[in-house]
Amino acid sequence: MSDRERWIVYPLLLMSLGISVRDKVLPSKAVVAMTVHCSNLKVDNKIDSKSVTADFVRCNLLEANRAVAKELDLPSGAGNEVRVLKLTQRSEEVKMSEWVEEGQQAPDFTLPADDGTDVKLSKLRGSPVVLYFYPRDDTPGCTTEACAFRDRSTDLAQTKAKVFGISPDTLDSHRTFSGKFSLNFPLLADVDHQVAEQYGAWREKNMYGKKSMGIQRSTFLIDRDGKVAKVWRSVKVDGHDQQVLDALAQL
């Protein structure tokens, strides 16, 4: 199956289940029935929900062939073809995660940053941390928000706070965005939105009657002991930088 065929077949299958093509994510409770054609070897197999791990279902569509071959323990190679014949979703609907609340321990995570490092939250103990989730690089609201934090870097440094922007964009996208606007703090790539789900920032959106899942602009202020001190949901960009500084002053 060529890349072109995959881009035609997989999105159509996803759309038939009502899943956003842009997100390229299968539901964690999906049951995937498939036939794998590997050279002259034909293997019919069924992966139940227990086997459908995050590593499998959160793969990029263009990598789907290799992911399935790996899951079924088949040899990899250019001759392998994976044809998804049927996708059925259990009747159980996907539920949004609960918001992390003030006073709770901040969920730990490790994410890659645009500067080439890996950021592990628990290793930042001793300093306040500002985590702000935003929908997409280089869009008007997200650019305004990022530049506001950039311009308050001196004030933020006085509080010894570390600022991190998080979105589902790739590292390449982050680097382009950061370079274009000379951002002076790291952007973290949460491409499968697992961390956003942990914090409750991955929400259902309703745009002109069309529902989809995505990042709800939100900010979490984490104190020096790793506890959530302040949560802003549905952030309004204008003046938000000052709200964060005011909250930092109260720690």
Summarize the structure.
This protein is of the alpha+beta class. The chain has helices at 3-16, 54-57, 64-71, 140-151, 153-158, 171-181, 194-199, 240-249, and strands at residues 30-38, 41-47, 80-89, 110-112, 118-120, 129-133, 162-167, 187-189, 202-207, 210-215, 218-222, 228-232.
Task: Provide the CATH topology of the largest domain.
Answer: Glutaredoxin
The ordered H/E elements are: HEEHHEEEEHHEHEHEEEEH
Largest sheet: 5 strands, mixed
Q: Helical region count?
A: 8
| Uncertain regions spanning at least 5 consecutive residues | 1-65, 74-94
Tally the beta strands: 12
CATH superfamily of the largest domain: Glutaredoxin
Query: What gross morphology would you assign?
Result: globular
Radius of gyration: 21 Å
Can you give a write-up of this model?
By secondary structure, the chain is α+β, with helices and mostly antiparallel strands. The protein has 2 domains: 3-89, no CATH class; 110-249, Glutaredoxin, CATH 3.40.30. The chain is built from 8 helices and 12 strands. The chain has helices at residues 3-16, 54-57, 64-71, 140-151, 153-158, 171-181, 194-199, 240-249; strands spanning 30-38, 41-47, 80-89, 110-112, 118-120, 129-133, 162-167, 187-189, 202-207, 210-215, 218-222, 228-232. The strands form 4 sheets. A 5-stranded mixed β-sheet has the order 8-7-6-11-12.
Task: Annotate the secondary structure layout.
Layout: H1 3-16, E1 30-38, E2 41-47, H2 54-57, H3 64-71, E3 80-89, E4 110-112, E5 118-120, E6 129-133, H4 140-151, H5 153-158, E7 162-167, H6 171-181, E8 187-189, H7 194-199, E9 202-207, E10 210-215, E11 218-222, E12 228-232, H8 240-249
Parallel strand pairs: 6-7, 7-8
Antiparallel strand pairs: 1-2, 1-3, 4-5, 6-11, 9-10, 11-12
